[in-house]
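pls design
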């Protein structure tokens, strides 16, 4: 018969001979401790904690208080742990372990300043309390407790300027309080001890990144790696920084790390993705294949191997890889690539059949498969077929708002504004703050009716929810133009074009410039936009419509 495991070994305090009780316990205490031990055996940690805590207070014995503290921590009984730790610390005020644990529990319970006071006492002795717990505090910048902690810790640093943990924790708190400059200055004054050097360099790099950006941070790391040696942690950090602004250098850095850590899955994945983005297909393929061997990031590697096979025109292999992608982040992208691949080979019915099968096997994603089938037909010029698919989808899934929005867009292309409005109104009846529906309805109403004030109200709701969206700002400028407020229209359309310099926004801005008599600005924008080599059918239409020469 299997015995129940006892947590006693993992929670029992280390008791030195001099800490052992030097007096006998009475019968009631021994009985309660025996009951507690049987409770531990039966995994009744609540009862065991209650008994030990009661006897800790009854006997005032530091060993029982220590055991009660650790038992309560093991049982995740925070209130009991704090009470027991406070007693333990009172009974053994010089014991560093008791002070550290009590301070840690105080910090966790939101009494960080009290915890700091406990640890500060040990700075006057040969012992050193642990200040690292303050690094994990989740306090917002400007919060009163954070400000008080910083002030108190600054006073302690003045008295103990060479204490590493104290100064480092103060730097972390300053960073949390958005005082990165002061934090960085504090770190530069830390004593240079080899075992702590990497920690200081890493935090300093983080602060430089925050203050000056990834390029300066990567350069700082490079300089210090020359002095301290190319440690893996620092090399990896630098490679991640490089990936934010120099993909070629990042690929090289990750490649160098793989020379000594060839099976590190995270390195392989980073290198593979960056190499793929750089167009280094051979290197990317090698790393993705290695991920398959070490059995990590399987779905991602199958997806990208499919993309690579597509680029190499190995379409059979591409289809095979895409089919291997399981549920998760890459499942829908792989499905999209697979059906587009099938359709591009003239097998659009095969692609549709595959999507039909997926709707049966993966019903929770049925709406996405319906939308993908409609998109596939639309891309291949079958607008009517796409509309029919969405009609079927909405009969099957009438509350799927994404399908309603997709059908509304197709209705607009088919010049059926009534159907567009009905679908978008339905969406807004279910989700009054749906930004896409608010903007789409306001914009199509501007183009297809004279209800400009109503359109303005809808677009204004959308822009209040997403004020920096170029498409919504364009809609706002467009409806303002139709309301006769040309100056406001120009201001918003110019802002929209800076954010979203596409064909539709350009066409709107050119028209408003021209109708406002700003012919020079209209021609200059046309000239500028043509230099981008962007497709510009709407801009060409407005040039022809207004006879701009």
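designed seq:
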């Amino acid at each position: 018969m299997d015995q129940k495991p006892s947590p006693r070994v993992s929670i029992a305090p280390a008791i030195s001979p001099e800490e052992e009780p030097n007096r006998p316990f009475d019968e009631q205490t021994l009985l309660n401790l025996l009951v507690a031990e049987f409770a531990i055996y039966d995994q009744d940690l609540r009862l065991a904690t209650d008994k030990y805590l009661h006897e800790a207070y009854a006997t005032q014995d530091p060993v029982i208080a220590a055991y009660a503290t650790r038992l309560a921590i093991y049982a995740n009984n925070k209130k009991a742990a704090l009470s027991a730790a406070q007693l333990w610390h009172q009974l053994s005020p010089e014991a560093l372990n008791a002070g550290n644990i009590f301070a840690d529990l105080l910090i966790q319970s939101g009494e960080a300043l009290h915890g700091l006071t406990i640890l500060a006492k040990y700075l006057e002795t040969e012992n050193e309390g642990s200040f690292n717990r303050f690094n994990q505090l989740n306090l917002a910048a400007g919060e009163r407790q954070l400000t008080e902690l910083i002030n108190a810790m600054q006073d302690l640093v003045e008295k103990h300027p060479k204490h590493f943990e104290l100064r480092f924790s103060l730097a972390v708190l300053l960073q949390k309080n958005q005082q990165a400059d002061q934090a960085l200055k504090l770190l530069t004054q830390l004593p240079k001890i080899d075992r702590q050097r990497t920690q200081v360099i890493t935090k300093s790099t983080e602060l430089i990144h925050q203050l000056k950006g990834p390029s300066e941070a990567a350069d700082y790391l490079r300089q210090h790696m020359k002095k301290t040696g190319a440690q893996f942690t620092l090399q990896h950090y630098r490679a991640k920084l490089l990936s934010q602004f120099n993909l070629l250098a990042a690929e090289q850095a990750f490649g160098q790390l793989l020379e000594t850590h060839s099976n590190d899955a995270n390195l392989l994945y980073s290198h593979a993705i960056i190499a793929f983005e750089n167009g280094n297909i051979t290197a990317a393929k090698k790393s993705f294949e290695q991920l398959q061997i070490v059995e990590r990031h399987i779905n991602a590697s199958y997806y990208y191997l499919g993309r690579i096979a597509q680029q190499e025109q190995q379409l059979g292999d591409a289809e095979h890889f895409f089919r291997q992608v399981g549920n998760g982040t890459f499942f829908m992208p792989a499905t999209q690539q697979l059906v587009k691949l099938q359709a591009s080979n003239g097998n659009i019915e095969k692609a549709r059949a595959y999507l039909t099968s997926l709707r049966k096997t993966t019903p929770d994603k049925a709406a996405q498969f319906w939308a993908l089938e409609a998109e596939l037909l639309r891309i291949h010029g079958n607008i009517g077929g796409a509309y029919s698919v969405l009609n079927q989808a909405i009969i099957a899934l009438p509350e799927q708002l994404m399908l309603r929005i997709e059908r509304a867009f197709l209705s607009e292309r088919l010049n059926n504004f009534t159907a567009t409005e009905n679908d978008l109104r339905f969406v807004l009846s279910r989700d009054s703050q749906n930004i896409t529906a608010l903007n789409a309805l306001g914009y199509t109403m501007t183009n297809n009716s004279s209800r400009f004030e109503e359109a303005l109200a809808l677009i204004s709701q959308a822009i209040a929810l997403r004020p920096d969206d170029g498409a919504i700002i364009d809609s706002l400028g467009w409806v303002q133009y139709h309301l006769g407020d040309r100056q406001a229209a120009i201001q918003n359309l110019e802002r929209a074009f800076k954010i979203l310099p596409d064909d539709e926004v350009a066409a709107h801005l050119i028209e408003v410039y021209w109708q406002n008599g700003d012919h020079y600005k209209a021609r200059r924008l046309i000239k500028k936009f043509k230099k981008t080599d962007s497709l510009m059918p709407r801009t060409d239409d407005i040039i022809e419509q207004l006879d701009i020469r």
